[in-house]
Design brief:
By secondary structure, the protein is mainly α. Helices cover 78% and strands 0% of the residues.
């Protein structure tokens, strides 16, 4: 199977999943819900899109600065502008083909800064490991400040349908994990024709990469700045969601605690489908219903935040496509 065919299959699979989530989010929409959504949008503070837009752009800029820090131990000091443009273009490409944007931004920066692309890809792996650990920390913090949230989320996503349904969140989780593990093993052993020993080896490689990625921070000349930038990036994500609450009168009373929850749910949505299409809005809709937000408003809120983030990616990525060659020609 050629790499191009694999990319096409993966894209179709992820896009189908995103469209499925989009259908899930709107399938129960009634005329009353539509009326409530229209009324909320008409009375919403749409100007708040400006500070959210600026915060997300700033988070991308901080990502560019953090990426440069990872290149410095390799002896590379690319210009901040070129690095920033490459990051924005990478996000834009990821909307179409997941993970291709990571390769594209390394290739672009290598071309304009005369750097070895394979070394840049190594820094991307480290960056993704740090992001994964940061997201795990966000999950832990979310559940730490809201201990009862786990059971409420299970009840919202998997509501009871009677006495024969699963009444325990822990049993529901066990069944979900068992089912997902079984599907993965079927895929690994039957479709990919690999053995359990090979799976064990892959897990070992993964943990070694995680260790190498985390330990590489110790070799950074400015590791304190790296940690600070990482904190600021996720803090900006959190604040962007918090400000988004003030767009609707129905959500303006929510605070940082709820913003932390939608950051966790939204991050999963962005991973589940290309650019988070469908999945992001669906997960935010379900999450906000846990806090008592009506279905229609929760739906509008989820889609509005997704459109804001996607708009940032499309606009800044397209502008970067135009400015990158012009800047380097100048």
């Amino acid at each position: 199977m050629s790499n191009r065919f694999k990319i096409i299959v993966q894209y179709i699979a992820f896009l189908s999943l995103g469209l499925f989530f989009a259908w899930l989010s709107v399938k129960n929409l009634t005329d009353d819900d539509l009326g409530r959504i229209k009324a909320s949008l008409a009375g919403s503070r749409q100007w708040l899109i400006v500070p959210v837009f600026l915060m997300l752009v700033l988070s991308h800029y901080l990502r560019a600065l953090r990426w440069r820090l990872l290149m410095m131990p390799l002896g590379h000091r690319p210009s901040t502008i070129n690095t920033f443009f490459a990051v924005l273009i990478g996000y834009l490409i990821n909307l179409g083909v997941p993970r291709l944007g990571e390769v594209a931004k390394c290739t672009l920066l290598a071309r304009y800064e005369k750097l070895p692309a394979e070394q840049l890809i190594g820094t991307i792996i480290t960056e993704r490991i740090i992001d994964a650990l940061s997201l795990l920390l966000v999950f832990v913090l979310t559940l730490g400040v809201q201990p009862s949230l786990y059971g409420q989320l299970i009840d919202t996503f998997f509501p009871s349908t009677g006495s024969t349904s699963t009444s325990s969140p822990s049993l529901t989780t066990l069944l979900l994990v068992t089912g997902a593990t079984s599907l993965f093993l079927v895929y690994w052993m039957i479709i990919k024709k690999r053995t359990l020993h090979q799976l064990q080896q892959q897990i070992g490689v993964l943990f070694r990469k995680i260790y190498a990625g985390v330990s590489s921070i110790a070799s950074l000349q400015q590791r304190g700045l790296f940690i600070l930038l990482s904190f600021c990036i996720w803090a900006l994500y959190l604040l962007a969601g918090y400000i988004g609450f003030f767009a609707f009168a129905e959500t303006s009373h929510y605070g940082l605690q709820e913003a932390l929850t939608i950051l966790s749910a939204g991050s999963i949505g962005m991973i589940a489908a290309p650019g988070g299409i469908g999945a992001y809005a669906f997960l935010l809709e379900k999450t906000m219903q846990v806090y008592g937000l009506p279905y229609g408003i929760a739906l509008a809120f989820g889609w509005l935040l997704w459109l804001a983030q996607t708009g940032v990616t499309v606009i800044t990525g397209f502008i970067s496509f135009l400015l990158l060659p012009w800047y380097n020609k100048k």
